[in-house]
# Entry
Amino acid sequence: METMTNIQDKATEALTWFESARRDENDPESAFTRTKDGAPEWVTDLVRDAHGEFLPDDWRYDKIRDALEFIAESDDPEDSAEFADQAVDVYTSDRLAWLSSNLRRASYVDDARENLGATNSIIDDIGLGQYQEAGEIYGSVLNSLESL
# Structure
């Protein structure tokens, strides 16, 4: 249990190095998540590892921050399925925006269809792809915290 407390403490500490910003100060829709200047190397490494083969990506930054919050506040930080389930967008437009934001995301949908089973709806399949990617991000964040 002490190890989980340490992981949760590190997640809480890492969260202090994240902030929201706007690309256009007059446009609330231009908000994005980033790390603050001067973030320690271990936080930078955690973010880089969680991005995998992606270049810096807004959706991934949001999910990294969400994963850190989940780990910091959870009674069971090992429960990646609960996190991934909560990470799936509810609205069709958000799912389509996620899919179109990076060509690699189609492979998450394909993998999810293969691993979790295809649904009768392409929109639901896209949600499975988001679930798959969110689970991957969560696993990476948790692994980074455990290795500290």
Observations:
- The beta strands are 18-22, 31-35.
- The chain has a mean pLDDT of 94.
- The helical segments are 2-15, 41-51, 58-73, 80-87, 92-100, 105-116, 122-146.
